[in-house]
Design brief:
The chain has 553 residues and is of the alpha+beta class. The chain contains 22 helices and 13 strands. The strands form 3 sheets. Strands 8, 9, 10, 11, 12 and 13 form a 6-stranded mixed sheet that branches. Helix 18 packs antiparallel against helix 19 and helix 19 packs across helix 22.
Length: 553
């Protein structure tokens, strides 16, 4: 049976989705299953529980999995305004597109939907009202996103290009029950189940049950114990054929009796994040990887990366020259490409380029990363760097797509969630951004970036006009990483909002001492392509920052 809606064609038998021009639209199996459920129930409100029970039968999953599928469907359909899948407060989700159905055999009359004659008799392929809504959405999306769509489409085509997939079947992994004492078995069982569920979302591997007759390529085992102050876990992955342990990691999560769910989430993510990164490295392993961080390249990257956190133009220029020289000598080195692109985007954000140089730097960083994606289209570090680039340049629609791809390869990748949150902020979707940042905080992976989740939660509350809610998050961010300065500046805005000007001035003075040369332009989020909702909120935040003593220019 073929289902047609808003210019799209969903073939249930073949499990395929095609766009208005006949192009294939790739969706993960669970996301496609949810789209089928929506398309076969148009005009009916489907509850969260109904959706989860249908897509994940007999499996316990969190609402994060549901939200991710819905985000992916909206992205695939260009449903930026949420006119196709609409939230019904307190009830669930409603699929509002008009759906027409016909037997799949009719499609055999034409090789491709785009090749059908415009004069074909019979029912209209797309209802007129649905097509008009689709055209309006597409025009709005083009006006909002601009030429950034070209980069996103290029990235997607490279990711889907034939010949870039792994040869043969994907590696299989079995997650064995995590060992624990009698008092800790319940927690161990939860961690085991959620770890297996998370790994099952990864596109490039298959997860098999431990009891299956199929011998997996890898086995994940671990132990868990509870001390007075923390949960301590040790996990490892073993190559079944040789018995070689190829990955191991200790995990420690502080016990907070008031939030057991947070402890569970961080235990699972603490194991899952580094495990998914190791799996991704195995899937993307090639002869080049063995030398990518060897010798001089490693030294150059370390030196340049250390300079990113400094505000000296001279140090920045020196680091850029070092990376450009190293990459010219080794153009296929993906790690060098990522480091150079990251440095250049830092230069754009800190306004270390003049306007002409800034545009050239953005274009150069994009070109570098497109080449890196051609070399390793399923590499999380490359996708993460591309996600950061699109976020930094305010191509937020494309950023959501690429960040979602990174999450499809590592469901616990909090940096990708953070950049999705920034894209949602730019679109004026503050509640969704808040949920993304808090979800990143609930994973807290990698911990080196943990201050950023808290800073962005605080920033979002400030944009929502909730200074009291922002205050504790910004203080926690400073407690983790006291030397950034940015958290102090946002903290000063929170104090202004609470009517505490002396504390605001003190916080701003600390921030300026840590980040001399800061001003409104490099403290606020960039406004290019931003929605009117963000612009209005940012104007109020700017007034608070100026009142606290931040220079305007």
């Amino acid at each position: 049976m073929l289902l047609r809606f808003a210019g799209f064609e969903l073939d249930r038998r073949r499990a395929t989705l095609r766009g208005p021009a006949g192009e294939a639209v790739k969706l993960r199996p669970k996301t496609l299953a949810m789209l089928v459920l929506f398309a076969t129930n148009p005009g009916r409100v489907l509850s969260k529980r109904e959706l989860m029970d249908a897509v994940w039968p007999n499996v316990h999953v969190g609402e994060d999995n549901l939200f991710q599928c819905i985000r992916e469907i909206r992205t695939a359909l260009g449903d930026d305004r949420r006119e196709v899948i609409r939230v019904v407060s307190g009830s669930g989700y409603l699929f509002e597109a008009e759906v027409s159905a016909e037997p799949a055999t009719r499609v055999a009359q034409a090789a491709h939907p785009a090749l059908r004659s415009a004069t074909q008799t019979g029912p209209a392929l797309v209802p007129a009202s649905s097509w008009r809504r689709f055209v309006r959405r597409r025009r709005a999306a083009v006006a909002t996103a601009g030429l950034g769509c070209i980069l996103a489409l290029t990235i997607i085509m490279m990711m889907l290009a034939p010949g870039r997939l792994m040869a043969g079947r994907p590696p299989s992994i079995a997650v064995m029950p995590i060992a624990a004492g009698d008092e800790d078995k319940a927690m161990a069982a939860i961690v085991t189940t959620r770890l297996a569920d998370g790994l099952a979302q990864i596109d490039t591997i298959s997860v098999v049950a431990p009891q299956t007759s199929q011998q997996p390529d890898f086995i994940v085992t671990g132990e868990l114990r509870k001390t007075e102050r923390s949960w301590e876990a040790q996990a490892r992955m073993t190559r079944t054929a040789t018995g070689e342990i190829i990955w191991t990691a200790p995990v420690s999560v502080v016990i907070d009796e008031a939030d057991l769910a947070l402890q569970q989430s961080r235990l699972v993510a603490g194991v899952g994040y580094p495990l998914a990164m190791r799996i991704n490295a195995l899937v993307n392993a090639d002869t080049h990887e063995g030398r990518s961080l060897a010798g001089g390249a490693k030294v150059v990257i370390e030196q340049a990366s250390a300079s990113i956190i400094h505000t000296s133009r001279e140090r920045f220029a020196t680091s850029q020259a070092m990376l450009e020289k190293a990459l010219a000598e080794d153009p296929d080195n993906v790690d060098l490409a990522i480091a150079l692109a990251a440095l250049q985007m830092r230069g754009v954000q800190m306004i270390w380029y003049d306007p002409t140089e800034s545009a050239a730097a953005e274009a150069h960083a994009g070109s570098i990363l497109k080449r890196a994606l051609r070399i390793k289209p399923t590499s999380i570090p490359v996708l993460d760097a591309s996600c950061r680039l699109l976020s930094a340049t305010n191509e937020f629609t494309e950023s959501l797509v690429v960040c979602a791809r990174a999450l499809a390869l590592n469901p616990w990748h909090a940096p990708a969630l953070t950049h999705m949150g920034l894209a949602q902020l730019q679109a004026g979707r503050f509640e969704e951004a808040l949920a993304s940042f808090k979800r990143a905080d609930s994973y807290d992976t990698p911990q080196v970036s943990r201050w950023t989740w808290k800073l962005n939660v605080g920033r979002t509350y400030l944009l929502m006009g909730r200074s009291e809610d922002a205050l504790p998050w910004l203080k926690k961010s400073i407690a983790i990483t006291p030397a950034t300065g940015r958290s102090h500046m946002l903290l000063s805005a929170a104090y202004i909002g609470l009517g505490r000007p002396a504390e605001a001035r003190s916080a701003m003075d600390q921030g300026m001492a840590l980040r001399p040369g800061s001003n409104l332009e490099n403290v606020l989020l960039p406004i290019r392509n931003a929605s009117p909702i963000l612009l209005a909120a940012a104007a109020l935040l700017a007034k608070a920052l100026l009142a606290a003593g931040l220079p305007e220019h």
